[in-house]
């Protein structure tokens, strides 16, 4: 295995190929199984295979233990909910708890019972308290009704008696005495008192009137402060009501209406003395209940604080126990029922660490027998495992988003670390904007310890995870910004004075006649004098377009070279001779030649039209080039390259399917099965598309697949090269947007000589720069750089059909609850 990992033509390189993996088998005694799995979870270097996939979760050996852990997790969630309601935060502690899972289960059960009882008692007391508060309000407000009514009745009685004493008047009606002294039938009125929600009070009054046909008398009084409803527990604005009625039928109707409207009724005495006594009694009971409730809350807070002090440790222990039992359920029980058999993938370098963990588990469990560790030979494709750090993990994540590398396939991450931020910077080149990105990246890097322990929102978490990608993007943007000589679209003479000057002192003819060269060429990047001239756009367009083609052809060649390394590593000579070589010839016969012409034109200063040369290379390859000739023998070279390009297409298409068919017949013509020679061979089986195992070889399918692959490459060579022109387009768009914001916003505001307009213009410029150039343009350039890597670069060699190595680990386990 180790020879495979370091074999082939490639030198040892971290991240270039995934770690060599092995399929191991562990035979673990029952008494040490739990501790063994626990130690392997701490080690995080073994991915267990499920050997009980045909069994349901309830048929597995440790289903009962998982159910126990689920119940404990439910109790912990209940505790957390109670703590959040009470405003108690769990305290993180690193001190280990001296309790096992059985003792913890008993303890959690006791705490749950105590907390549930306290909650029930507290709710009961609080409901009684709320009822007494409402009762006291009814006594106070309704008492005012009766006091007012009695005062009016006394006044009327005095007035009547004073009339009797003063004698009859001549103006007194003759029938008045008969009306006052005649026989009157006394009617006994009943009444009900209570509270009704204020929003329902008008409807309540209307329904009462209609139900009793007006034979009620209703009085209401507003309660100033909202009260807590005893039934719902919500704060509600209410009115106190007293309704007078006559007869039992009216009373029955009123009671039903009160129930329908959620009106709480309370007993009420008509005598003022009894009312005062009841108020005193209710006030006393309120004080007692308040004291009892406060004492209960203090006791409950103390209990929740004691839970919070150990909550994180309890939660970690329960989650750890549950994950251990889940893993134990993936192990098969030996026929003797004394051992558990485990299988899983592990890196080769982890063999010694796993064996040490097995020995420690057996020793700590006082097991009489040590666990057995052995390597299995298999044809199954191993998982892919790259050892990354906080810097390379984000770049590896970019590649894994496209597809996980096949086992020991060449990993694009090695080159993406440099090429991705560089291609981003080609589109984003401005050293002022680059400095802004650098400050943002440094903020996340400096505060990474604090931010990594916090719960972040989705966008912030994504930005924080890519902080080192943003760092290199910013540094490369500063570099390309120096090349483009742009600082928020403003040029600076950083590396020396400009090589050009005006023909006269007044510079009247600078835009028509042009400038003259008086010094040596500007030493680094674009001469600042180009900015703002008539020829700026044609010059920069030509420069960036040709630069985009050069970068694109170079990266596509790198992708094809990577396919050669893959073919050599997997010992696939067919792909070397009939894929790598014709692809290199085809791409470089056309676009490699174009790149050569660009470089020669730059070096010689020729005025040759490269469009004309490339087009007529196909249309009229035998015609003389004339003024478009860049070097001697160019015509003959073009004929040779054109012939090679045409030959490379059938070279890619025809031989490979026939060779694969011949290899299949040679492999499976004599015997159906071949023994495994060694582990290295077994782990390379099925590593290529050409390996079909013992399946039937369908020549038509293989030929059609090769035809599609050939057409895709030939057309892709053209479309991919054109796709790299996005580097030029986005760079131009970024530069022009930056120039528009600077000239049409900031400089226009400056020209008004007004402080307010200048401040407004500066604010608009800052928001436009941040919102458009530093956010939208950054995202746009990022996505385009991502596309160039995923499509134009990786499709030349990267299959990405592997699967990730997911070791059993406590530190990486997800929250399953």
UniProtKB/TrEMBL annotation:
Keywords: Coiled coil, Hydrogen ion transport, Ion transport, Membrane, Transmembrane, Transmembrane helix, Transport. GO terms for biological process: vacuolar acidification. The chain crosses the membrane at residues 422-446, 467-484, 547-565, 577-600, 637-654, 755-776. Essential component of the vacuolar proton pump (V-ATPase), a multimeric enzyme that catalyzes the translocation of protons across the membranes. Required for assembly and activity of the V-ATPase. Belongs to the V-ATPase 116 kDa subunit family. Its main location: membrane. GO terms for molecular function: ATPase binding; proton-transporting ATPase activity, rotational mechanism. One of its GO terms (cellular component) is vacuolar proton-transporting V-type ATPase, V0 domain. This is V-type proton ATPase subunit a.
């Amino acid at each position: 295995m180790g020879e495979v990992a370091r074999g082939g033509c490639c030198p040892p390189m971290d991240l270039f190929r995934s770690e060599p993996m092995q399929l191991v088998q562990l035979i673990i005694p029952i008494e040490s199984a739990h501790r063994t799995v626990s130690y392997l979870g701490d080690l995080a270097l073994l991915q267990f295979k499920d050997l009980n996939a045909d069994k349901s979760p309830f048929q597995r050996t440790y289903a009962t233990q998982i159910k126990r852990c689920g119940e404990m997790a439910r109790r912990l969630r209940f505790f957390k909910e109670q703590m959040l309601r009470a405003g108690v935060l769990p305290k993180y502690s690193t001190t280990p708890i001296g309790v096992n899972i059985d003792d913890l289960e008993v303890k959690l059960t006791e705490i749950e019972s105590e907390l549930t009882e306290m909650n029930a008692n507290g709710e009961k007391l609080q409901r009684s308290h709320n009822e007494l508060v409402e009762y006291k309000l009814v006594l106070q407000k309704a008492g005012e009704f009766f006091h007012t009514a009695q005062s009016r009745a006394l006044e009327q009685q005095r007035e009547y008696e004073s009339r009797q004493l003063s004698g009859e008047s001549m103006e007194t009606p003759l029938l008045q005495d008969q009306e006052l002294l005649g026989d009157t039938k006394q009617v006994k009125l009943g009444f009900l008192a209570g509270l009704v929600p204020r929003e329902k009070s008008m409807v309540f009054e209307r329904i009462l009137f209609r139900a009793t046909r007006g034979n009620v008398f209703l009085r209401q009084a507003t309660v100033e402060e909202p009260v807590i409803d005893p039934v719902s527990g919500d704060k509600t604005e209410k009115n106190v009501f007293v309704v007078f009625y006559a007869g039992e039928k009216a009373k029955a109707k009123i009671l039903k209406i009160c129930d329908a409207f959620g009106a709480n009724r309370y007993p009420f005495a008509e005598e003022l003395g009894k009312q005062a006594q009841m108020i005193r009694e209710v006030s006393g009971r309120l004080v007692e209940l308040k004291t009892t409730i406060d004492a209960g809350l203090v006791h409950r807070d103390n209990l929740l604080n004691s839970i919070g002090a150990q909550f994180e440790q309890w939660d970690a222990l329960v989650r750890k126990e549950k994950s251990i039992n889940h893993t134990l359920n993936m192990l098969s029980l030996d026929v003797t029922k004394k051992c558990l058999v485990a299988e899983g993938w592990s890196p080769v370098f982890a063999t010694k660490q796993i064996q040490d963990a097995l020995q420690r588990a057996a020793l700590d469990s006082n097991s009489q027998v040590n666990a057995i560790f052995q390597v299995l030979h298999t044809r199954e494709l191993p998982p892919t495992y790259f050892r990354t750090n906080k810097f390379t993990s984000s770049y590896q994540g970019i590649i894994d988003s496209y597809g996980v590398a096949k086992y020991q396939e060449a990993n694009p991450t090695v080159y993406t670390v440099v090429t991705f931020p560089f291609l981003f910077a080609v589109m984003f080149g401005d050293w002022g904007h680059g400095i802004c990105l650098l400050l943002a990246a440094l903020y996340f890097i400096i505060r990474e310890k604090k931010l990594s322990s916090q719960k972040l929102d989705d966008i912030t978490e994504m930005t924080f995870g890519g902080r080192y990608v943003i760092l290199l993007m910013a540094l490369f943007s500063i570099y390309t910004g120096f090349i483009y000589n742009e600082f928020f679209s403003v040029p600076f003479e950083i590396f020396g004075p400009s090589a050009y000057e005006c023909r006269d002192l007044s510079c009247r003819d600078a835009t028509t006649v042009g400038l003259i060269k008086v010094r040596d060429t500007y030493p680094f990047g674009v001469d600042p004098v180009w900015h703002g001239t008539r020829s700026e756009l044609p010059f920069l367009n030509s420069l960036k377009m040709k630069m985009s083609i050069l970068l694109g052809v170079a990266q596509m060649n790198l992708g094809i070279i990577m396919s050669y390394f893959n073919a050599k590593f997997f010992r696939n000579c067919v792909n070397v001779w009939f894929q790598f070589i014709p692809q290199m010839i085809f791409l470089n016969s056309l676009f490699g030649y174009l790149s050569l012409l660009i470089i020669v034109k730059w070096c010689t200063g020729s005025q040759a039209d490269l469009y004309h040369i490339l087009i007529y290379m196909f249309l009229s390859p035998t015609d003389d080039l004339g003024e478009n000739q860049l070097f001697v023998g160019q015509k003959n070279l073009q004929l040779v390259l054109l012939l090679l390009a045409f030959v490379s297409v059938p070279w890619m298409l025809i031989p490979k399917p026939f060779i694969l068919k011949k290899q299949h017949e040679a492999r499976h013509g004599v015997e159906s099965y071949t023994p495994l020679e060694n582990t290295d061979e077994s782990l390379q089986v099925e590593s290529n598309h050409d390996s079909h195992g013992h399946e039937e070889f369908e020549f038509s399918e293989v030929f059609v697949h090769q035809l599609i692959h050939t057409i895709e490459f030939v057309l892709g060579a053209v479309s991919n090269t054109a796709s790299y022109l996005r580097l030029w387009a986005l760079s131009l768009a970024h530069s022009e947007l930056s120039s528009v914001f600077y000239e049409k916003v900031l400089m226009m505001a400056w020209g008004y000589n007004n402080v307010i307009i200048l401040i407004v213009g500066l604010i608009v410029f800052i928001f436009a720069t941040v919102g458009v150039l530093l956010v939208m343009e950054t995202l746009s350039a990022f996505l385009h750089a991502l596309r160039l890597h995923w499509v134009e670069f990786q499709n030349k060699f990267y299959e990405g059909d592997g699967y990730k190595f997911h070791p059993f680990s406590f530190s990486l386990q997800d929250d399953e609850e």
